[in-house]
Amino acid sequence: MKTGTTAGAAIRRGAVALAMGGVLLLTAACNDDNGGGDKASGGSTTAADGAAAPAASQAAPKTSAAVLAVAPKDGAQDVAPSNGLQVGVSNGKLTSVEVTDKDGKPVEGAITPDGTGWKPAAALAVGMAYKVNAQAKDADGLVAASTTTFTTLTPEKKVSTNDNISDGATYGVGMIVSVNFTKDVKNKDAVVKGITFESSNGTEVKGHWFGDRRVDFRPAEYWKPGTKVTIKYRLKNVEVSPGVYGDVDKDEPFTVGRSMVSTADAKTHQMTVERDGKSTTVPVTLGADATPSWGGTMVIMSKEKVTRMNSQTVGLGGEYDIQDVPHAMRLTTSGTFVHGNYWAKNNPFGNLNGSHGCVAMSDVQGGSDSSVAGKFYNDSMVGDVVKVVNTKEKTVSPSNGLGGWNVAWANW
User: Fold this and answer.
1) What residues pair up with 215 in beta bridges, in sequence order?
2) Nearest CA among 66, 192, 72 for reference residue 120
3) pLDDT at position 57
4) What is the rounded distance in angstroms from the CA atom of residue 101 to the CA atom of residue 132?
5) Are 359 and 328 in contact (CB under 8 A)?
6) What's the CA gap between 353 and 345, in Å, rounded?
7) CB atoms within 10 A of CB 297
8) Which of 169, 194, 178 is nearest to 250 (CA)?
9) Exposure class string for 217-243: b at 16+ Cβ within 10 A, else e
10) What is the rounded CA–CA span in Å between residue 354 and residue 286?
11) How far is CA 328 from CA 155, 203, 211, 375, 406, in A?
12) For the stretch 185-208, what's the b/e string if a residue is b when 16 or more beta carbons lie within 10 angstroms of its beta carbon?
């Protein structure tokens, strides 16, 4: 790293060179082809006279009292992209700091209000060479300058990042973006800053952590229909944990579709469907007394026209194993669905609660588009909201599926 003293030495050497150059230029200007110098009056002599004019005495230039301090040092390798670059000055104030990568792209940053420091506005790129040009002035206006170079590290360890969004897809108004990592995240604030949302109507989106490997994002209220959203991942330069960096820099767009919010009532055995302001009611059956349905707000996570449901996968032993459940829409990770039911006896739909916790509607084996379940399935999309009220079970955990709407915005 070049200090203010080193820079001052360079300035002195430059000043001497310039002074010598000035003498040569003066000599050339005073001579003519006829060698007409006035020797008697002390004028300069020509080359033919065989005598050189005496050099003028020059005072050494003053050195700036400002001392620049640039970290990392000049030529440093494997510099951390975050907090690895800082510029400071003592006995003076910074006047200019220019940082560029190997392609000449400038790094954004700002000199502090007191003029004594500078930091980049964001993390630097990994595996990149940078050049730092800094200048400062002391109280007398004398300039100190420094030029250094360094290279950021190339990460050996990375964490994989996955979410539940498909590029360009359309989702319901209750969609929660859930981001999962393959390794524990320690620098959670830095990761959240590296995942930002832009929307066509300026909707504010915040993240909430569930453990060390999952962060979910949502607005304060349901998305407005028609909102266009872009998730901006900028994690490649983020140290998510000591020595571990993110793996993705990309933009991921999606669109919010029409509004559809359904409320299943365990007391009345009916589900009210509000779709773009129009309301309809369909008969359903929810969880029986021994296996009541979760309460609270859930979101459709996925849709399958036909799926297998085995009670052993949800801790209910060998109670059932139905290999062709039609029109299945998952609501929780633990196994709650909205689905069609063709095997129920005594027509429980609209009359009683007889399921193992799911919200079930009438259907036929193989599924039918004209059945109650088939029509609801075709009208639904991932991200639609399904609420369960008047159940004997507690509210679903916010981490069970996309249950984040059960957390107050103030606590999100």
Assistant:
1) 179, 209
2) 72
3) 53
4) 9
5) no
6) 12
7) 24
8) 194
9) bbbeebbeeebebebebbbbbbbbbee
10) 6
11) 43, 31, 29, 12, 23
12) bebeebbbebbebebeeebebebb
Contact assessment for residue 111 and residue 97, using Cβ atoms and an 8 Å cutoff: yes
Tokens representing residue 393 in the block: 């079970």
Residues 405 and 412: their CA atoms lie apart, in Å, by 9
Closest Cα to residue 213, out of 186, 234, 249? Answer: 186
Q: What is the pLDDT of residues 318-331, one digit of tens each?
A: 665 778 899 999 99
- CA torsion sign for 249, 255, 261, 264 is negative
Distance CA 324, CA 307 (A): 5
| 96: β partners | 135
Identify each DSSP E strand in 30-92 by its residue range. Answer: 67-71, 76-79, 86-90
- Chain segment 227-282, per-residue pLDDT in tens: 999 999 999 999 999 999 999 999 999 999 999 999 999 999 999 999 999 999 99
